Amino acid sequence: MPLPPFKDPSLLHRALTHRSFLNEHPEVFEDNERLEFLGDAVLDFVVGALLYHRLPEMKEGRLTRLRSSLVRTEQLAAFATQLGVGEQMRLGKGEEDNGGRQRPSLLCGTFEAIIGAYYIDSGIDAAREYVEALFQPVLANLLSDRSDNDAKSRLQEWAQAECGQTPRYVIVDKHGPDHEREFTAQVHIGDEPMGAGSGRNKRAAQQAAALEALSKLGLA
Questions:
Q1: Active-site residue among 31, 95, 112, 121?
Q2: Out of 31, 36, 40, 95, which one is annotated catalytic?
Q3: Is the Cβ–Cβ distance between 72 and 78 less than 8 Å?
Q4: pLDDT tens digits for 119-134?
Q5: Quick check: is 40 catalytic?
């Protein structure tokens, strides 16, 4: 699937422009941070509406977990990779040398900025159509394998039943500025590390770590 078609290409250029690019190109005046903010809101609304209409019998709690699974950093970064966003991002040399084109937080933020820009360019109906086309296959997979369920709760139930232990989570890394902070969590059962995962807040990182642990155990 290609990037959405823009009537105003300058909006796409701005969506692809990381703030590090401005430091080395004084002729460029705008980065993608405001578009990222807008795109985050558009995605929350469109995905929430999709779930509400597609799953009329589902309770609010599971709808919330599904939405969180669909818009988590890793999933949005995967969409960005699928669309070839990493190769098109406008980054400063330092950011590029540090692996910015593959960094999930940057890919995720740029994807959000593209959605925000497309909303401005073509309106909510076009943005909804594009987002739904991307998200429908992922949603189908989540519904079939139930991996949207609270991974931490599922891992805790297993660990207490099988090992008599409660999983312990440790934040092993955090980096990036406040608006792009990414956390990495590791989950231990007893002294053994069972899984690791990243997210834009501690809870999301812990959920990702629990999901990896469940996958390794054959329970995801």
A1: 112
A2: 40
A3: no
A4: 999 999 999 999 999 9
A5: yes
Identify whether 24 is a catalytic site residue: no
Mean pLDDT of all residues in the chain? 90
| Per-residue pLDDT tens over the stretch 150-187 | 788 888 888 888 888 899 999 999 988 777 788 999 99
In order of start, what are the domains of the chain with their CATH numbers? 9-145 (1.10.1520.10), 151-216 (3.30.160.20)
Q: Write out pLDDT tens, residues 132-151.
A: 999 999 998 888 665 545 78
pTM over 0.85: no
Residue 42: Cβ within 10 Å count? 21
